[in-house]
Design goal:
The complex is a heterodimer of chains A (about 280) and B (about 160).
Chain A (H helix, E strand, L loop, with lengths): L7 E2 L15 E7 L2 H10 L7 E7 L17 E8 L9 H19 L4 E3 L3 E4 L2 E13 L2 E12 L20 H5 L5 H20 L3 H10 L7 E6 L2 E10 L5 E5 L2 E5 L3 E3 L7 H7 L1
Parallel strand pairs in A: 2-3
Antiparallel strand pairs in A: 1-2, 3-4, 4-8, 5-6, 6-7, 7-8, 9-10, 9-13, 10-11, 11-12
Helix pairs in contact in A: 2-4, 2-5
Chain B lengths: L21 H14 L3 E5 L4 E6 L11 H7 E2 L10 E4 L4 E4 L15 E2 L4 E7 L2 E6 L4 E6 L5 E3 L4 E6 L4
Antiparallel strand pairs in B: 1-2, 2-3, 4-11, 5-7, 5-10, 6-9, 7-8, 9-11
Helix pairs in contact in B: 1-2
Chain lengths: ~280, ~160
Amino acid sequence: MPDQTAPTRWDAALALDTRRVGRPLWHYESVASTMPLAHDLARDGAPDGTVILAEEQTAGRGRRGRAWVAPRGGAILCSTICRPPLHPDGLFLLVAAFGVGLCWGIERATGLRPQIKWPNDLLLDGRKLAGVLCESRLGGDGLAHAVVGFGLNVNLGPDDLPAPTPGALPPTSLALALGAAVERRDLLRAILIGIDEAYALIWEGQTETLREEWESRLAGRGERVRVETDGGPRVGEFIGVDADGALLLTIGGRTERILVGDVVLGPRRTTPDELAEKI
Amino acid sequence: MAQNGNGSSGDGATEGLPSGLTGEVRALIEMMSRGGIAELSLQTAAVKLRLRTRDGMIGVGGGTSQVAVAAVDAAVDAEEPEGVIVPAPMLGTFYRAPGPGEPAFVDVGEEIAVGQTIGIIEAMKIMNEIAAESSGTLVEFLVESGQPVEYGQPLLRLMPAPA
């Protein structure tokens, strides 16, 4: 990566007293993307909880290679190397830990109360505040390591945010919601502590506590939502998640379990199913 | 997985089948008998099987496996493909490439090394890279990119290099 700058170690400067997350914390001015860098370090044996933080990503990416654009200094962009005691099928708990930990940190630092869009992203007032991305590497013995990355919109103004695309949630930032800029170092510290606490629940075997906390923060729970699935849209009451993290949707008195899908919140079109119900 | 044993159940219809299969084949024949099914094909990564009645009708008399077996001409084509199967380590959607429009991690005919990424399984928005547990030449993919896979489902077949 020719555009990668040399890192400096930040955990001491932040006075981080976490158990795992951010020990160490490597800060880069510029990297292509924190995700492949974190995978490389994980393969070289970097410890559980190592965080790669970048001021700027020149080739940031989201799920399935989607571009993630953020102007320099306006967001918190980082990836964390995790080696949790989880079977691959339980990795949703890792995503849950990062969602819950981000919520805790943001609440403590700003007073704002974000929600989680099942299963991973953070919302504020129905707008996308942060994207969370989890990638794991599986071998013969199960999980070799996982990397969880997130991009949190902090001090981005209306002109810095990407234009809303059809079908996607409109973006927002903490500064927009608060009407004032946020001190990023204090916020970063609060977030890493929050994630460390939530991640510790996995290590301490308190996964049900974590799952319940995650479920309580899911946007649209208890409401009628549409879920876009490979088999078409499903509309029903979002009653919660099961022990495997699957979304539970009650449709016409029957509960469906959804493992892959996009929850659509807010104004929406009437589906043929709904029309049929009304008729 | 099919075995290459020479065991035989002793009855005519299933004679010569791999020993581990005979019970399952009898169960299939019985199912055909009960359901009045004239022809049944089954293919997995390990075995390919075709069962067909002799005249399109199955005797349903006693309903036991013996009766059903006697009534069926088990045109069986059982085989065990050579090589090593790489199974899905979890449930999800299998992808051959890291993203749409990007080159596949590996292609048929390519030499695969231990630990090399052979694909991704996505579940709950988590992208899980699947690493090869053994080395060899990639013979074939057994699932399509974008296809849902179950735990343990064969993903691809490798041919190990001769010792």
